């Protein structure tokens, strides 16, 4: 008995139209990135030209030179701002992933008394704007003596509710039978969490890594940090912009630098982020 092979109901014309539409959307979404790169290499007269030009006409490295000259003239080295931002971003992101994943695992797979109430509190916390919680956060940090320290930026980021919500939604899709099989094989609860649950929700925690990294990398922190040697790159950028139009070129250069790092993290992680639970072979 011959089995007829099904041919996909697609046409070359339809595929071509889909490709052209996707290229159009991709080009439109890439315009802000191209504009930021173009601005970083524009001389001052082009930055303030009206009507503004999208692409640079006379590219120059003067903006980069001005940036390094400005930072070298400061009593705090430019590398100090970089260290502060990198340190806060890496430590905050790492511990946020750990804490959010462990809390989500308990809420999703251990039905203890009050677990619904705890998750309702997490959802309610998502509704509060950072502007609403700014004053309570400052009062708390002031009372415990964390103002003008790294803790004031790292600890609130570790307790961000978005990570718990995202991880819990993914961990609920893991079958209980899979976890019970690991326990019957003698695995401890911590080993079940690290060796079974976490690999299965890899797309979720990689997505959370990008969100947390981007939020911390772009965090200003001027509300809590007053010592110049503890300030971050966004704070330095704000100070440069506040000096006036003469520093617009340097501000464009540092804005490009601030954008490149999160973009690189996303490009490296995007193949894993695009995965879904179905690709992991999990079925309810």
UniProtKB/TrEMBL annotation:
The chain crosses the membrane at residues 12-37, 81-105, 117-138, 150-167, 204-226, 246-268. One of its GO terms (biological process) is transmembrane transport. Keywords: Cell membrane, Membrane, Transmembrane, Transmembrane helix, Transport. GO terms for cellular component: plasma membrane. Residues 82-269 form the ABC transmembrane type-1 domain. It is found in: Cell membrane. It is a multi-pass membrane protein. It holds the Pfam family BPD_transp_1. InterPro entries: MetI-like (IPR000515), MetI-like_sf (IPR035906). Belongs to the binding-protein-dependent transport system permease family. This is ABC transporter permease.
